[in-house]
Amino acid sequence: MQFEKDYYKCAFSVDNVIFGFDGSNIKVLLIKRNVDPFIGYWALPGDTIDANEELKDAALRVLDRLTGLTDVYLEQVKSFSEVNRHPRERVITVTYYSLINITNAEIKPDYFAEKAEWREVDDIDSLAFDHYHIIQTCLDKLKTSIKLRPIGFELLPTKFTLTQLQNLYEAILEQDLDKRNFRKKILSMNILKTLHELQSDVPHRPAKLYSFDAEKYAAAQESGFIFEL
Question: Whole-prediction pTM value?
Answer without folding.
Answer: 0.92
